[in-house]
């Protein structure tokens, strides 16, 4: 499933890109007046291979939840149980992601890819468990390559299911106490950046924990220095949710359905997806810029510019959800707005 | 009507602000994890004098259209007729503002407060004409104080009508070829900033026109140096749409309905409203940061931080419309999200 998905991913279509740019310039607005949103619409046209691109509605958020062996190193002030407690909160509709999804009209699916407990079946919960949390990446590989493939394929399968159910935009979400540590390690490895430059305070750690966290990321990179392929790097340093999100991104791209990336966890996962299939970046929109320093490094490597920059540091898909109306607005312009000719508006003399 | 409106505007309620902050900290998310959006929700609670504040839906966009005598100075490459052509485009649903409004579910009302032509009656068009364009502000006052009051009261009246029709959020919009020149003059005067620092390229002028535009703003400030009160400054340097938008903001604030400001024209108008009634800023949300340099100066003076920063330079209310889902999401969190206690989620040990 992984190989077939990667084979189906195509880079942006040059003709659709050119058509979309030309269409933008005929619309009743000064050229370039929509700033970054014009480029978003053009990029989605390239990814969809048609201009205007289809409206990216309805959207589906998938929150991939998993636990992390590295939690034992004391990198987070939150107990590991919070992962499963927050899964219950998502399923009950009580989390911020639920409120944001309701606001923008997105569906919410929670996927257990590796929570360290058996979760009771529930509506809105997909069980795709690869393990009961990863191994401690600071001591060696977080997972085997076979587990990484299993998690990747879980993500592909979730993307396929949501698209078959009608989704025309996928939004990445995550839940996993300690997952900013794994994200920092992935970003450091895939971009060749020093651990200190990509390791942040997550959902709130003090100075001494931050120093510890950087040291743990360094140890993880040392302990896994043998990992040299995209898959082995992902397996060595990632969480199950990182691997699943990478698969989710690949699955969207293969189906030409755009994927809005949330924050630093999605950015780290997208680096893995990009390493497996570089064209995948053409199908991604960076939803927001997280307060985590590694996120900007990841986005720069992917060549993506975030749409929302409001100092969010929550995860769950919240930043991706907030970006969805902006992405829709960008595409709607190409469908609804009149051209100078059609509207009888005088063009600016050039 | 103006005096009574100003008298009704109250500053943020300290108790509602404190309640909203305390409520934010009990929700199932790390404290502060929603960044700027937490402060938006808290500010709206203060303005509404209750926590949580009412949902700012439905939203109503009012696009105030007018022409400008200063157009004769060659400050814009666009012919003046484009103002009325774009009004027709708004009414036909073909402009970017219409597409964005459709995306976010906002109504669109166009208000003629001073277009230099008689417009045919149309559904969605309110005629509140104060004149056929302003006088040239580079030669003397753009309008009389009586005209400024008339335009302010037109804006108040539009706010009252839209709120009576059910709007729970007002969004400012504007259309007026050459109105970034008047905006720069207003911002320079109300903030005491040099013309060169606040005069930008509007919807696209070349270097020589930009230099001319700065010189025109300087001449306008010199020619109107006698203006010393808020009202006389607005009359001397503003456009009819600036005065009407200032009234619209005052009208929203008086009714405790939040106002999302669009770009630099709204920022300039908000400075006038703020000079007339300083508490008005508590009721405003800065929708976006325009590419115009004067906008950041205006927002800093008002103490507002923009939500969207995507290099838009279109006007029409487009930046305000894009911010609306973000503002709704911020408030919805306070209504929908579970507390740690209620959700059974363990709090971070402090």
TrEMBL record, chains A, B:
Catalyzes the synthesis of alpha-ribazole-5'-phosphate from nicotinate mononucleotide (NAMN) and 5,6-dimethylbenzimidazole (DMB). GO terms for molecular function: nicotinate-nucleotide-dimethylbenzimidazole phosphoribosyltransferase activity. One of its GO terms (biological process) is cobalamin biosynthetic process. SUPFAM superfamilies: Nicotinate mononucleotide:5,6-dimethylbenzimidazole phosphoribosyltransferase (CobT) (SSF52733). This is Nicotinate-nucleotide--dimethylbenzimidazole phosphoribosyltransferase. The active site is at 316 (proton acceptor). Belongs to the CobT family. Transmembrane segments: none annotated. It catalyses: 5,6-dimethylbenzimidazole + nicotinate beta-D-ribonucleotide = alpha-ribazole 5'-phosphate + nicotinate + H(+). Its EC number is 2.4.2.21. The lineage of its organism: Bacteria, Bacillati, Actinomycetota, Actinomycetes, Streptosporangiales. The gene is cobT. Keywords: Cobalamin biosynthesis, Glycosyltransferase, Transferase. PANTHER family: NICOTINATE-NUCLEOTIDE--DIMETHYLBENZIMIDAZOLE PHOSPHORIBOSYLTRANSFERASE. Pathway: Nucleoside biosynthesis; alpha-ribazole biosynthesis; alpha-ribazole from 5,6-dimethylbenzimidazole: step 1/2.
